[in-house]
């Protein structure tokens, strides 16, 4: 199996090595800016994640009733692909790499840079992400073609119309994310030459990272991602059908405008939710609840993995530096995966835990070690006791 296609790909050890920056300051600044842009972009894809969550919900809801329908089988394969994308945890990979990069404002003569194998691992992950996104594009088109046939027959019209709309949204986002991923890959690849190597190489000897990811993907990328349908395209239900005929997009600018609006709204939501708040303010969960329509009163139910109403902050007294914070987060993430009931953040959703990590990374370089530890403890206490 190809390296980029391995589900449980073992990551190299995250290391940094002292380096002289006499002739590579511009490259380091460019690499840091790219890494920051990636962290911001992939952590603000909440609209894409919401559409993927709807897809999972639909598959689980109608898995018995529609199990023998060809279009629903396509949706099940699509759901497995989306789950693989989520399990890659790309934001965490970028955070591990970004944490060892310096500030862009000033580069000292001697700094610690991440080793080359860490960047190679990130590039391999981007390869796998593009392949999975292209499969999402292909499967959404196949599913949409089937849903159109059912709609034309007026068979379960509301259900298949809902499925069709979801396929269009996933198709649109998958194309956009794939384009941005290729752009990030092309910006990261030249940095391989400035990063120090370790004695033990992580990348296999027979594996060669492509210089251009678009060329590596080949004609399928040109056909599925870059091709823009025209408004005059015929609406066909066979192999030549184009989903653009349904969405009635006349130009490529309309696609980019729609994606930009959706991504912009998601970025504003993340920025507002990431602002530090005092413990005297109203919890975020209550604020969001106040914006919803009054459809009833939520009933609390006891759950074995529910978040605790009280957390003893003395359990964090051993954390006294930035390094301790990083070690604690790695151990906590491992506990959430291997033994969720023993994790401090049991009952906290993966989305909330990811937002918590992003907020920490934004302050990692700016704050001193003591201030960062204080900020971490405040944010962690708010995370594990939110809504109580």
Automatic annotation (TrEMBL):
Matching entries from Pfam families are given as: NEPRO_N
Q: Which UniProt keywords apply?
A: Membrane, Transmembrane, Transmembrane helix
Q: Where is the Nucleolus and neural progenitor protein-like N-terminal domain?
A: 4-189
State the source organism's domain of life: Eukaryota
Q: Does the keyword Cytoplasm apply?
A: no
Q: Which GO terms describe its cellular component?
A: nucleus
| TM stretches of this protein | 155-174
Under what name is this protein listed?
Nucleolus and neural progenitor protein-like N-terminal domain-containing protein
The organism named in the record is Anopheles christyi
């Amino acid at each position: 199996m190809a390296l980029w296609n391995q589900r449980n790909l073992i990551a190299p050890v995250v290391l940094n090595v002292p380096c002289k920056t006499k002739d590579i300051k511009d490259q380091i600044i460019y690499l840091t800016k790219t890494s920051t842009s990636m962290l911001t972009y992939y952590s603000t894809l909440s609209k894409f994640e919401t559409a993927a969550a709807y897809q999972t919900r639909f598959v689980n809801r109608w898995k018995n009733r529609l199990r023998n329908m060809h279009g629903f089988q396509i949706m099940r394969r699509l759901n497995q692909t989306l789950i693989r994308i989520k399990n890659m945890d790309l934001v965490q990979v970028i955070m591990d790499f970004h944490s060892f990069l310096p500030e862009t404002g000033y580069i000292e003569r001697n700094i610690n840079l991440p080793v080359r194998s860490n960047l190679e691992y990130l590039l391999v992950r981007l390869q796998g992400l593009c392949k999975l996104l292209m499969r999402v594009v292909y499967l959404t088109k196949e599913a949409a073609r089937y849903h159109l046939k059912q709609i034309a027959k007026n068979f379960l019209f509301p259900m298949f119309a809902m499925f069709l709309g979801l396929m269009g949204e996933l198709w649109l986002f998958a194309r956009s994310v794939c384009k941005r991923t290729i752009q990030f890959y092309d910006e990261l690849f030249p940095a391989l030459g400035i990063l120090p190597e370790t004695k033990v190489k992580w990348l296999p000897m027979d594996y060669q990272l492509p210089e251009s990811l678009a060329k590596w993907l080949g004609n399928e990328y040109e056909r599925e991602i870059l091709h823009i349908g025209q408004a005059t395209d015929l609406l066909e239900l066979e192999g030549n059908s184009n989903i653009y005929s349904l969405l009635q997009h006349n130009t490529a600018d309309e696609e980019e405008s729609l994606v930009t609006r959706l991504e912009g709204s998601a970025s504003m939501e993340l920025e507002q939710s990431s602002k530090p708040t005092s413990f005297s303010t109203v919890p975020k969960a209550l604020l969001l609840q106040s914006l919803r329509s009054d459809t009833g009163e939520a009933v609390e139910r006891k759950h074995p993995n529910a978040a605790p109403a009280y957390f003893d902050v003395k359990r964090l007294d051993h954390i006294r530096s930035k390094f301790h914070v990083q070690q604690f987060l790695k151990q906590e993430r491992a506990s959430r995966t291997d033994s969720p009931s023993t994790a401090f953040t049991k009952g906290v959703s993966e989305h909330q835990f990811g937002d918590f990590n992003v907020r920490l990374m934004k302050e990692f370089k700016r704050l001193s070690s003591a201030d960062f530890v204080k900020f971490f403890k405040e944010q962690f206490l708010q995370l594990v006791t939110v809504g109580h």
